[in-house]
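Let's inspect one such protein example.
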Amino acid sequence: MSAVVDSYRDDTDVSYAVDFSRDREPAKKRSRFPEYRRTGNAPARVNGMHCRRSKRWTWGSGRGARMQNVRAFAGCLAVALASVSASVLAVTIDYKTVNNVGNAANPLTGLGAVSSVFNIAKYETTNSQYAAFLNSVDAAGTNPNSIYQANAVISGSTVFNPITFNAGGSSGAKYAVSGGASNKAVTFVSWFSAARFANWLNNGQQASAASMETGAYTLNNLVSGSAVARNPGAVVFLPNSNEWTKATFYNGTTTNYRQYPYLGGGTAPTAVTSGTGILGNNVANYGLAQGKTTGLTDVGLYTAASSWYGLYDVFGNAGEFTETASPSFPADRVMLLGSSWRLGTGAAVNWTSNTASNSYFTDSYSDSIGFRVAAVPEPATIALAGVGIVSLAGLDWMKRRKRKATAQQAALAQTIAS
């Protein structure tokens, strides 16, 4: 009989240690045999190991196990979310952060003052990125709201889009980029198509046509007319004229606007042969009228020719849509910045920080006009920040639970001693 009682006592002491987050039973010997202190009935067998209740929020036991498991879970979830943003999404945008908040506008144009930090794409949107968008929102190839244009007529001649459409292709793979143009700036897009691309990014690149109609802009199937205003809370969007001007012309060290959007910036960029990368810090792909170029180049080809914030191709290559309505033209035009590869060298003086911008119809497109996107700071880490908040809340919950358990243990010990 004694052996049986001792076995039962050892079992309950172990139970006591587990229930109250103790690695071992209390060192002090109890003066009398305690009653079984677990919720529910006592174990059916008194010798050998009995089944313990399942502890929530932990897959370990002993001191600190629950806390360690919470930390491990939060870390694994953060890694998983980071992996999703890096590998599952079809398009990844390389952003540069534009800070120096509260800068003054260029006094000659009134443009460039921005009161908050924002991100803007380092490169113009490329053909491969836009083709991924097309395959995602138009898997069946129905071309909703004319987001794809096969060609354009420029000065009486037909030019063709390097993004091609194959009606017989498999669902979700009907659009492809031909002729080595994957990394060239996308053109053949209207302002509304650019806004739909921004909506798609804003909504997490969902594979549905509906994901391009709301988000940064509420488009409601519009394909022409006035540009639609940015929605409050937009995450990814087209830059407005102030954001674009600051990101390209402003120098945060000297706090002034360079005449041309490069680190040198004091003289017009040198027009260079299309497709040739050189090391100059004030060169650009433009000058068709002088026979210098033959079309678009890969984005970022001129590796030393960036703006102060690190943007490429902000002069020449593709002209870029902004979300700002043109102040001096009808409502169906927006401000177009950055010139294009078709610009003659003699016209470079019309595309400085001190001169008025051009404008373009919201429903028109060509082989020399594209866009880049902007975003709120660090859009890819918002979800990870949420994980951190949840983890902190979990840690606080564990601390409160431990304090409560300690108080219960003290009360129970006092009852046993009496």
